Amino acid sequence: MSSEESIVKILSQAIYDKRTISTEDIYEIINNYTTIFREKSSHSFASWCRNQKLDFLLAKKKNRTHISRKMYIMKDIFYDDLLNSIYSYLPKYQETLKKMGMKSSVMPESHQQMKMLLAELGCSDVWCQI
Fold it and tell me: Is the full-model pTM beyond 0.85?
C-alpha cells in the first residue's frame, strides 16, 4: 500500500464508521436536516430512493423482516460541517464568478431569494438560516 493510500485509509477511518443501517434509519437522519420528506412516511422515502436508483440500496442484508445494510456511514459529528460546506458552496462559487466578471445563471439577487430557494429545496431552519 502506498503512503497516499495509507493516508486516505486513516482519514476515512476517522470520518466514517462501518455500521449496519436501515433505510428507515437513513430517513430519520435526513429528516433532522431537511423538510422534504417530513410529510412522507419512511416507505415513501424508500420508494423515492428506489426510483432514484441510489447506490446504497445495492448493499443489502436481510434480518428476518427488517432489511438493513452494512456500509460506511459518516460519523454524526461531521454532519453539520458537511451541511455548512454544501450550504456555503453556491455563494462562494458566485463570488468567484463575480470576481472573474462572469454571472451565474442561478444567482439569487438577495438573501430573501436565497431563503425562498432553500425553502423550495426543503432546507431545515436548523442549518439553513441566512
Answer: no
